[in-house]
Amino acid sequence: MNVRRVQMVTCPQENFMPYFSTRGYDTYAQDSAASGGGGRAPVVIGHSFGGLIVQKYILGSAATSSHCSSASPPPPPPPPGPTPGSFPPLSGAAFLCSVPPSGNKQMVMRFLRRDPIMSLKLTWGFIARTFASSRTACRELFFSSDLPEDKLDRYQKFLAAASPTRLLDLRDMNAQVPLPPPSPHAPPAFVLGAAQDTVVDPEAVQASGWARGGELASYYGTQGVLLQDLAHDCMLDTRWQRAAAELETWLAAL
């Protein structure tokens, strides 16, 4: 397919954009998925809740190939999604530490059973935006323990400035998930998670089957990649190059 255009949805730009630009990719950052311009349809990368935006976009995008999903049979029909064909097509979609099509409710319950204290910190961190004022909260929610202090300080300021309001209305999101099953013409998907992620757990990335909540890799009929020693903000974290290298390998195979 020789895709050379990459667009990032709600993704930090500091590391990934120069990484892929120097490797010959036309790399763009924007707040919503839209192909625009000429040439081959782009690959769109969604991080965290941005991944859920990309999933909804795909439900309304036109077919780009004969790629078929091998996802298991879906649960009872959820609320309708966008009209297929109403959005420009994509050549592929990459999901980095992305909220799965089942939303975040099941993840919250898993975190609560696994670590009640951390679950409360996570919930309060997003409600009160403690990550914007507390370096400890910012590190616990988004980064590894060995991220240098100067980078943590810079990234905390970035997150505080980039998140003055909620990206998604959670009540609206909960009313729309689980998402409908993907079209048989959904673009190829890449799904990556981080083992130290305190926002999106490993089950949301690569657990199998709709019976487990429609986790993302199963949803698109692919195999998820789970990287050790990496936290939720995998595009900024200490070992971000590992995530970039995995994504680059997948892009090269399209």
Automatic annotation (TrEMBL):
It comes from Volvox carteri f. nagariensis. InterPro entries: AB_hydrolase_1 (IPR000073), AB_hydrolase_fold (IPR029058). It holds the Pfam family Abhydrolase_6. Residues 29-244 form the AB hydrolase-1 domain. Residues 67-87 are annotated as: Disordered. Gene3D superfamilies: alpha/beta hydrolase (3.40.50.1820). SUPFAM superfamilies: alpha/beta-Hydrolases. Residues 72-87 have a biased composition (Pro residues). This is AB hydrolase-1 domain-containing protein.
